[in-house]
Design a protein that fits this description.
Elements (H helix, E strand, L loop, with lengths): L11 E4 L2 E4 L5 E7 L14 H13 L4 E5 L12 H16 L5 E5 L3 H9 L4 E4 L8 H8 L2 E5 L17 H18 L7 E4 L8 H9 L12 E3 L4 H7 L7 H13 L4 E4 L2 H19 L10
Parallel strand pairs: 3-4, 3-10, 4-5, 5-6, 6-7, 7-8, 9-10
Antiparallel strand pairs: 1-2
Bound molecules: 6-hydroxymethylpterin-diphosphate (HH2).
Length: 298
């Protein structure tokens, strides 16, 4: 079987010296949370040795990049001071960068934490607050790092308190467009930015499904859309399953998101997601370019 055929408009994502070509291939971003309280893996990778081992495992499973977080963003989570985030991240970043030098992302809304992570070799800042820290854009711009701008209504402490939208897809798209404009105005190159609708961040179950179903309307021309659905509560509520039994539901949502245009999938379950995403890439390519009758009969 040949890989997904070319045909869509070129799409790149620049993350310092790494330039990902997303034209026909979706990236899988593996998650490692160096936290005691994350909703699905809290406490498992707080100790640096455990986090480094998990990071290496996810890379071996085929992750294109890793997202390291030292502060949970689950609903109601308490903020973690920058110094504590750095203390958790530093040994893990050092160990990973001195090895195979993978593409590492830091999941933080703090410019101070982002700056230190970039100094230590991170190549992406994943900012769920989309530049609420007024010095974040400058830090990212100076480094040339990749930047994920995510939509969130309110903050983790309050975001799930009766979220309401008139038209969730339009409001998320407009918000992301404004944040992209703010980032580029502050000097971040547009080709460094990826946009994320923020599944589960200030949204009801129905809002999350609507955002995924209308993914083609989100984002901005020429910029990749990232989605994170892995193990999230909208899947748990739909299937009435606890967090450790949401793999298949997450894979279904990720595959459909990729078919509808997502180009980066953030996940805790890398091996399974890589398989689902590769098939979804083929389906997306097939929709653009129908196979010729003579092609590969297997
Ligand atoms: N979801 C989580 C955290 N960070 N970043 C982006 N860009 N998109 C997401 O959907 C996203 C994110 C929540 O997942 P997790 O990191 O596993 O949990 P916690 O925030 O509790 O650490």
């Amino acid at each position: 079987m040949t890989p997904a055929a070319a045909g869509g408009p070129p799409l790149i994502w620049r993350c310092r010296d790494r330039v990902f070509d997303l034209t026909d291939r979706t990236l899988v971003m593996g998650v490692v949370n160096l936290t005691p309280d994350s909703f699905s893996d809290g406490g498992r990778f707080l100790e640096p040795g455990a986090a480094i081992a998990q990071a290496r495992r996810l890379l071996a499973e085929g992750a294109d990049l890793l997202d390291l977080g030292a502060e949970s963003t689950r609903p109601g989570a308490a903020p973690v001071p920058a110094a504590e985030q750095v203390r958790r991240l530093e040994p893990v970043l050092r160990a990973l960068v001195s090895g195979a030098d993978p593409c590492l992302s830091v999941d933080t809304a703090s410019a101070e934490v982002a700056a230190r992570a970039l100094e230590l070799g991170a190549r992406v800042v994943n900012d769920v607050s989309a530049l609420r820290d007024p010095t974040m854009a400058g830090v990212v711009a100076r480094s040339g790092a990749g930047l994920v701008l995510m939509h969130m209504r309110g903050d983790p402490a309050t975001m799930q308190q009766d979220p309401r939208y008139e038209d969730v897809a339009r409001e998320v798209r407009d918000h992301l467009a404004h944040r992209l404009e703010a980032a580029t105005r502050a000097g971040v190159a547009a080709e460094c930015v990826a946009l994320d609708p923020g599944i589960g961040f200030g949204k009801t179950v129905r809002h999350n499904f609507e955002l995924l179903a209308r993914l083609g309307e989100l984002g901005a021309p020429g910029r990749p859309v990232l989605v994170g659905v892995s193990r999230k509560s909208f899947i748990g509520r739909t299937l009435d399953l606890p967090v450790d039994q949401r793999l298949e539901g997450g894979l279904a949502a990720a595959a459909v998101a990729v078919f509808l245009g997502a180009r980066v999938v953030r996940t805790h379950d890398v091996a399974a997601t890589v398989r689902a995403v590769r098939v979804a890439d083929e389906l997306r390519a097939a929709r653009r370019a129908p196979a010729q009758p003579s092609e590969d009969a297997t």
